[in-house]
Amino acid sequence: MTTAMDMVNKINPEKEARNLKVKVIRLWTVPTFTGQLLPNSMEMILVDESGWKIQAIVQKTMIYRFKQLLFEGRVYVMKLFSVVPNQGSYRATRHQFKLIFQFRTIVRDAICDFIPKSALTISPFTELLETKEDSNFLVVLFLCDL
Question: Where does the Replication protein A 70 kDa DNA-binding subunit B/D first OB fold domain start and stop, copy by copy (predicted)?
């Protein structure tokens, strides 16, 4: 029997049990600002087969559990995590919520040819210039020689 997968754009805190099939399109660690050797968190951008993206966070106390399981560019089935509002000045996606991995979170390798290899959201430069200091998304500029 095949388990139904939830779509990223339908994620909200009201439903606890979710099954996501997603690709990790970006994975990074956030250092502590106190000079400790251990990172503060491990964070990632996940994308589903429809191209919807959401940020996911592995907090400091859970990094040991997921560090060897998660790799950029790989597809996984994930379930059992917390869903919280995506607030503050550090938002890596436009999704209203973000995922927090828990000790009970399950991550399994999967195969899916339908998930995009990259899922950049391209915004016109004029839109970036019009944003206020507290914009709703992370801006990364790519400069190239023309």
Answer: 6-109
Rounded to whole angstroms, the Cα distance separating 98 from 81 reads: 10
Evaluate whether 7 touches 33 at the Cβ level (below 8 Å).
no
Rounded to 5 degrees, what angle do the CA atoms 11, 89, 70 make? 50
CA-closest candidate to residue 55, choices 85, 15, 18, 16: 85
Which residues of the chain carry a pLDDT beneath 50?
Answer: 146
Quote the Cα angle for 79-84-88, to 5°: 140
Tell me the C-alpha distance between 33 and 16, whole Å. Answer: 33
Dihedral Cα 74, 94, 55, 114, nearest 10 deg = -20
How far is Cα 26 from Cα 119, in angstroms, rounded to an integer?
A: 10
Give the pLDDT confidence of 3-44 residue by residue, as tens digits. 788 999 999 998 866 899 999 999 999 988 887 778 999 999
Q: Name the strand (E) or helix (H) holding 126.
A: helix 125-130
Amino acid at 15: K
Mean pLDDT of the chain: 83
